[in-house]
Write a structure and sequence with these properties.
By secondary structure, the chain is α/β, with parallel strands linked by helices. Helix content is 41%, strand content 20%. The protein contains twelve helices and 14 strands. The strands form three sheets. It has a ten-stranded mixed beta sheet with strand order 2-1-3-12-11-4-5-10-8-9, with helices on both faces. Strands 6-7 form a two-stranded antiparallel ribbon. A hairpin with a 5-residue loop joins strand 11 (265-269) and strand 12. Helix 11 packs across helix 12 (346-356). The longest helix has 19 residues, at 14-32. Bound molecules: nicotinamide-adenine-dinucleotide. Nicotinamide-adenine-dinucleotide (NAD) is lined by residues 13, 17, 73-76, 89, 92, 261-262, 278, 281-287, 293-294, 297, 335. Nicotinamide-adenine-dinucleotide is lined by residues 13, 17, 73-76, 89, 92, 261-262, 278, 281-287, 293-294, 297, 335.
C-alpha cells in the first residue's frame, strides 16, 4: 500500500537540504519499488509569512494523516522579533506535541572517513555508531508542580518535579529494545538510581521489559558515569535509553563526538512508530540560499524514516552505504572538508548519493 510522506522544508537551508533528500527518495521510487507519495507544505517562518502562524491547521491535519513527516529546519533572523507565540519553533513544538512523539532517536554515527573531524583521537571514535533513545514528553521538563515561590522568610525558591509513570517508562523501553534488536542487541539504560527514586523505578521497569527481549544484553549505568564513558570509550555503547533531561544532555555530548553537525539525523516517534524525521542542526541562516549546506543529515533522516516508519530497512541500509561510498570518493561539503578532499555543493552531494545508489 502506498505510504504518505509529508515534506516540510521550513526555513533557511531547509528547502535546499530537503530537496536533496527528496531526490534520493525519488531515485528509490524509480529503482527499488519504494511505494510512497510525497506532498510538500509549509512550516516555521515560511508558514508564518503565508498564514500568520508557524503551522496552519490544515498542515497539522496533513501530518496526522501522513505515515511519516520529513522536516528540514525552522527559524531565521527575519522572524526573531515576532511574538513568542508565533515564532517558527512553535510550529515544530506543535507537531511534536499533537503527533504524540514521545521517543526521540538520535544516532551518533561517525563514518570512519570523517574520523579526523572529531575532537577526540581517531582511534577512539572511528566507526562510532551509538543510538540514543530519549524520552521526550515526560520527566522533569513537564512534571507538575513547578515554579518559583517565595518562602515565609522572603527567600525565593525554584522547584520542579521529576516524575515518570510506569507506562511512560515501559513504552520508551520497548522502543529502545526494538531498536537494539535491529542493531547489535546491546542496551544501556542510564539513570541515577542511587539518588533518585524515579529512576530506581525506571531501572525496575526496564528490567521487567527486558524479559520480553531475552536476546538483548542489558546494562544499567549512572548518568555521571555514562557522561564519562561516552568520552573515555564511546564504542562500548550500542543503544542507550534514558529520560528526557539526561537524554537531552547525553545526546548533545554524543553528537559532538562525531564533530560534524551536518551529518546528524534524528527521529521522533509515536506509539505506532509513526514519526517525524529531521536533521539535528538548525536552519543555518548564515549559509542559506548559497547551495553550501551539507544535505547528508537530512538524507540520513530519510533513511531513518525508511527504517522506523516505512518498514524498508533494506533501503535505509542502501542509503547509508551510498553515503559511505560518496565519502570514500573524497567528496565533502564545506563543513566536513579536509585537506586532499574535493569540495562539493549541496546539490552536487545529493547527486553523488543518487549516483552511488
Ligand atoms: P544551526 O544548527 O542552524 O547552525 C550552527 C552552525 O552550523 C552554523 O554556522 C551553520 O552554518 C552550521 N550548519 C548547520 N547545519 C549545517 C549543514 N547542514 N551544513 C553545513 N553547515 C551547517 O544553529 P543556530 O545558528 O544556533 O540556529 C540558526 C537558526 O536555526 C535559529 O533560528 C534557530 O532557532 C534555528 N534552529 C532550528 C532547529 C530546528 O529546526 N530543529 C534546531 C536548532 C536551531
Amino acid at each position: 500500500m502506498t505510504k504518505n510522506v509529508l515534506i516540510l522544508p521550513g526555513d533557511g537551508i531547509g528547502p535546499e537540504i530537503t530537496a536533496e533528500a527528496v531526490k534520493v527518495l525519488n531515485k528509490l521510487v524509480e529503482t527499488d519499488g519504494l511505494d510512497i507519495a510525497m506532498e510538500e507544505d509549509l512550516v516555521g517562518g515560511a508558514a508564518y509569512d503565508v498564514h500568520g502562524v508557524p503551522l496552519a491547521d490544515e498542515t497539522m491535519d496533513k501530518a496526522h494523516n501522513a505515515d511519516a513527516v520529513l522536516l528540514g529546519a525552522v527559524g531565521g533572523y527575519k522572524w526573531e522579533s515576532l511574538d513568542i507565540s508565533v515564532r517558527p519553533e512553535k510550529g515544530l513544538l506543535r507537531l511534536r506535541k499533537e503527533m504524540g512523539l514521545f521517543a526521540n532517536l538520535r544516532p551518533a554515527v561517525l563514518f570512519p572517513q570523517l574520523a579526523s573531524a572529531s575532537t577526540l583521537k581517531p582511534e577512539i571514535v572511528a566507526g562510532l555508531d551509538i543510538l540514543i533513545v530519549r524520552e521526550l514528553t515526560g520527566g522533569i521538563y513537564f512534571g507538575q508542580p513547578r515554579g518559583i515561590r517565595t518562602l515565609e522568610n522572603g527567600e525565593r525558591q525554584g522547584y520542579n518535579t521529576y516524575v515518570y509513570s510506569e507506562s511512560e517508562v515501559k513504552r520508551i523501553a520497548h522502543v529502545a529494545f526494538q531498536a537494539a534488536m535491529k542493531r547489535n542487541k546491546k542496551l544501556t539504560s542510564v539513570d541515577k538510581a542511587n539518588v533518585l527514586e524515579v529512576t530506581e523505578m525506571w531501572r525496575e521497569v526496564v528490567d521487567e521489559v527486558a524479559k520480553e527481549y531475552p536476546e538483548v544484553e542489558v546494562k544499567h549505568m549512572y548518568v555521571d558515569n555514562a557522561a564519562m564513558q561516552l568520552v573515555l570509550n564511546p564504542k562500548q555503547f550500542d543503544v542507550m535509553v534514558t529520560g528526557n533531561m539526561f537524554g537531552d544532555i547525553l545526546s548533545d555530548e554524543a553528537s559532538m563526538l562525531t564533530g560534524s553537525i551536518g551529518m546528524l539525523a534524528s527521529a521522533s516517534l509515536d506509539e505506532n512508530n509513526k514519526g517525524m524525521y529531521e536533521p539535528s542542526h538548525g536552519s543555518a541562516p548564515d549559509i542559506a540560499g548559497q547551495n553550501k549546506a551539507n544535505p547528508l543529515a537530512t538524507i540520513l533522516s530519510a533513511a531513518m524514516m525508511l527504517r522506523y516508519s516505512l518498514g524498508r530497512e533494506d533501503l535505509a541500509v542502501k542509503i547509508e552505504d551510498a553515503i559511505s561510498k560518496v565519502l570514500d570518493q573524497g567528496l565533502r561539503t564545506g563543513d566536513i572538508w579536509s585537506e586532499g578532499c574535493t569540495q562539493v555543493t549541496c546539490s552536487e552531494m545529493g547527486d553523488a548519493v543518487v549516483a552511488a545508489l
